[in-house]
Amino acid sequence: MDNKVLERAMRNLADGLPQRGWKIVKQGTDSSRNRNLEILAVHLESRTQAEITWRKGLDGHEPLISFAVYSRCFRDPGLSSTPTPETAPAPPTGG
């Protein structure tokens, strides 16, 4: 994909994320030789974190935008945390 399209996509993300409950905690170039543009954001309600990097491809690779999303451990409140005989771990065998 063309870097001009990716640059516009990064601008749209930076403008649109806050409107969807995300707080941008860092926006700027990374420490690589290519000085790739990155956005680090946190979703305030779910506390999910996103790391978005525009890899410009100046090192010979194809330009792209990479996403990494990190979330807290999710536990369904409808499920019991107490093990049942079917879900309890098997006792250790001797040996």
Task: Give the SSE layout.
Blueprint: H1 3-16, E1 22-29, E2 37-43, E3 49-55, E4 64-70
Antiparallel strand pairs: 1-2, 2-3, 3-4
Quick structural overview:
It is built from one helix and four strands; from the N terminus they run αββββ.
Notable traits:
single chain, 95 residues, alpha+beta, 1 helix
C-alpha termini separation: 59 Å
Q: Look at the helices and sheets and give the structural class.
A: alpha+beta
Total beta-strand segments: 4
H-E order: HEEEE
Which parts are unreliable, with pLDDT below 50 for 5 consecutive residues or more?
none
> What percent of residues adopt helix (DSSP H or I)?
10-25%
Side by side, the strands of the main sheet go 1-2-3-4
Give the overall average pLDDT.
Answer: 84
Taken as a percent bin, the fraction of beta residues is 25-35%
Total helical segments: 1
Biggest sheet record: 4 strands, antiparallel
- Overall 3D geometry? extended
Radius of gyration: 21 Å
